[in-house]
Amino acid sequence: MKAIIAAMLAALAALPALAQNFDDPAEFAQQEAQLAATPMGPEGAPWEQYLEDSMVDTAAMAADGPGPYTVCFSNAGVNNPWRVVGWETMQAQVALQPEIGDFIAVDAEGSDDKQIADIADLVAGGECDILIVSPNTTAALTPAVEAACEALPVIVFDRGVNTTCPVTFIHPVGGYGFGIQGARFIAENVEPGGNVLMLRILPGVDVLETRYSAGRRILEEAGLTIVGAEFTDGDNAKTKSIVEDYIQRGQIDAVWMDAGATAVAAIEAFEDNGLDVPVFVGEDQQDFLQKWQQLGLTAIAPTYPTYQWRTPIIAAVRILQGEPVPGPEWVLPQPAITAGNLDQYVNPNMPPLHYAMCGCEGMPGYPQAWGGQ
Amino acid sequence: MTLAAPRPFAARLRGVNPVWAVLLLLLLAILLLNPAFAEPQGFMNFLRRAAPLCLLAAGQVFVLTSGGFDLSQGAVVTFTVVGASMLLDNDEGATGWVILVLLAAGAGVGAVNGLVVSVLRVPSLIATLGTMIALGGVVMTWSGGAPRGYLTDGFRAFGRFMWRDVPVVGLLPAALLVLVAGGALLWWLLHATTYGRLLHAVGDNPEAARLAGVPVARVRVIAFVASALSAVVAGVLLGGFSGVSLDVGTGAELQAITAAVLGGTLLLGGRGLVGGAVGGALTLSALFTLLNLLGLPQPVREVAQGLILILAVAFAVRRRGT
Lengths: 373, 322
Fold this sequence. Notes:
The structure holds 2 protein chains of 2 kinds.
Chain A: H1 2-19, H2 25-36, E1 55-56, E2 69-75, H3 81-96, E3 100-107, H4 112-125, E4 130-134, H5 138-151, E5 154-157, E6 168-172, H6 175-189, E7 195-200, H7 206-221, E8 225-231, H8 236-249, E9 254-257, H9 263-272, E10 279-281, H10 286-295, E11 299-300, H11 311-320, E12 325-326, E13 329-332
Parallel strand pairs in A: 2-3, 2-4, 4-5, 5-6, 6-13, 7-8, 7-9, 9-10, 10-11
Antiparallel strand pairs in A: 1-12
Helix pairs in contact in A: 4-5, 6-7, 8-9
Chain B: H1 9-15, H2 18-33, H3 40-65, H4 73-88, H5 95-118, H6 124-143, H7 153-160, E1 162-166, E2 170-173, H8 174-191, H9 194-204, H10 206-211, H11 216-242, H12 252-262, H13 274-293, H14 298-321
Antiparallel strand pairs in B: 1-2
């Protein structure tokens, strides 16, 4: 029953998707340039680095005194493995900052209404020195964030809001960048005319639509044939079934995915049918990375780095101390895992859907807090 | 001595469950679009992926026959897959006892469902909805919101392994053997035992059954246990087929009910067909494959599933009326 409701919502979400532009050449070009840019900031700590050379003066926002500060966080939810990893990473970052006395986090459980109420409650409570928001959806949360900006400094990360009132909006390069990295790898490793299967989760989600439009653009420009673009619903069994059906109907030279959680299921479809696994685009989930290493695949793992959950905490402390932070957009580097650095990210002791680009290896509580052994 | 006149061909044809005709049509349509489906790799892949739903539907038939619904099947599937990944702990030798523990847990869930329905008199829709939500909570708490481990190759073999170079059929998925064994057991229980007759009696008219001395509560509890156990086995197959995920069982109960009704089982109890349910599950899977081949997206498939449920019930009610 939930699946039907979800499908109806997805269908509804797809309607405004037609109106919104998920294939914006300017955005595409900007993210393409950001992928190639040399990051500023400390080397080896990409969660503190930034790609756009623009700082915000926060002297006026500094707290009275050296702390300890109360940092508040309105979280959209911990409702998928990516957010589970991110949330653990954020809590570990809090533990690393002695300047933070209290960390008050509220989980909206994937509900816009609850998050709007959460933000109002946090602001009205008067305890917060600064508010971090990871919005559940962009449009719905904009007024709530605007109201919070009136009362205290606000940091937004992951998804954005339609207002510039937050001190900074922290995010990695973005969906176009993700799509570019994977598709370019295919274009470099498959001859023109080769057959590419594109697997997507759901229609209508902005970050996924931009990954797809960028990927498609590059594949088409490279003269590759896109034999299909299918929605898997993020379901392993469905993914494997779809790939099996495509395998029966002809040669597949590469598989492009907009997210990697079901990548191993797609790979197994080739294995179980006695075929070599073609050129593959996954993501930084441990199960995919391990499969890649075991089978010696020709593959790449673009990432939407979970280390971005460290950055808002670092930014919060800097702002409360009156130090400048990158802004109004703090664009983090968005590295891809390649054959060259795969070994340093594979760790069989971590759970299958642990996102390896977490920057969390040296943090307190690692690996147990992330479900590792 | 007189010989019984042979039944006219048309009458015998009418006796055949129409779900098989629908299945045949769908398979022909698939073949038309994709001739490779006729090769062992094609139809054995199809049977391997349809096997879990066949078992779910066959188990669901027991609860439907008793006049109830089991909405907790999908949650039991997820519980089985996630539970297995936690309990196995990458130990190949643990496969046997882990499956036994999961079967025991499934039997427990079924027994609780059955007791809540028959002793506490909670309607089965509400009782099993409650179980579904509670089990979902257990899975979330146990796993922390993301899968914590892998399934071992031995555990996965049930749903994944195929014997190659088998005479006649070419390929033979282990899942097909599990389906045949499980399906035969469920068929025997419903159609060849006293228990099966009592279950039909309870579903047809519980009050009359009670007055006739049928142990209604026990009969119902066994039906829920059969449904939950089939969900555990389906979970083992699904986990084997495609690995661990937290939403592997989402919506499975609805597909199972659809498949059972498609196969001629009555929604309000009193008539259940295990064979028909397997046919219904194969039909539903064939429909999904066909919609896949036609390039229809997921939302359209969901709409089709909803419409088919309505049409199938309307058709079944009409058939009962004549």
